[in-house]
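Note to self: keep these together.
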Amino acid sequence: MQQQKPMLNLGCGRIILPGDKPAHHQLVDDSIYQYPEWVNIDKNDSPGINQVMDLFCYPWNLPDNAFSGALISHVCEHIPHEIKTNDPEIAELQDGWFAFFGELWRVLEHGAVVHILSPHGHSDDGITDPTHTRYLSGHTFNHSMQPNPDAPFNYNRRLNFAQMEETPMRPTEWFARPPYFVDGQATEAFWIATHTQINVIRDFYVRLVCIKE
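Structure:
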């Protein structure tokens, strides 16, 4: 039987896994929080942290193909555009987004699932925090996440991720009520609002699959 590999809890702060599911993670699959083996990583040392590491300095001090998945909660919107590295190949990637996800791809095994929770870019939660460097939506994770030999610049040559199924979203308080939500289901009015108004979606949840074969 193949040995089970640990999962990464990146930029975990005080959320140490395995453990209870935080209230603000309500969109994320319940099952992952009791996965038996985790490596909890954060820039700041505190109880429960397994490894202190700046995720925005590359390469990461982690081995190749060593992890079966990752949880990345409220981190992606902070990824700097600047690439801090002494590796010339990583430095050529043009933007820190591809350095971050290139390193994530490197350390995951084929088929690993990445669970990402992020504030929506068209919300107050996404816009008002001055430490945010990016304004994200579910569509962001379909953009330049797979090799494309026809692209004018090969930014993403170090990564290959496919997005899984739909993107669950948590509406803001105003849009969680009729006529936008009825009996717990989003209506056509809600979907129209997501394309025409701000502060419709508070946060969203994306799952990516690591492809190496």
